[in-house]
Specification:
Helices cover 60% and strands 0% of the residues. The protein is built from five helices and no strands. 31% of the residues are buried.
Amino acid sequence: MKRFSWNRDEQIIVLYYYLIKGARGFESDHLVQELAKLIPRHSAASIAMKIGNYTYLSTDKEGGLEHVSRLDEEIWQYFSQNIEELKVEANRLLS
């Protein structure tokens, strides 16, 4: 399967599902499955790993996947401090 780089919009949607909707970093999580349908160029496994990156960056969580990208960090640092803006931006992208 071809690997695709994550773009900003996709990352915002995944972060929204993680922080607001409660998605967890498991392929079997129903929200991860929902995301795989919304972002079809990334598999459920890839989405679960991206959530693992955000879990690692979170100060509230333990564990996660430590190999984060610069974009992961930028998205996390900005939107984790601007939750309302995350909601607005994610809803715009999802509409």
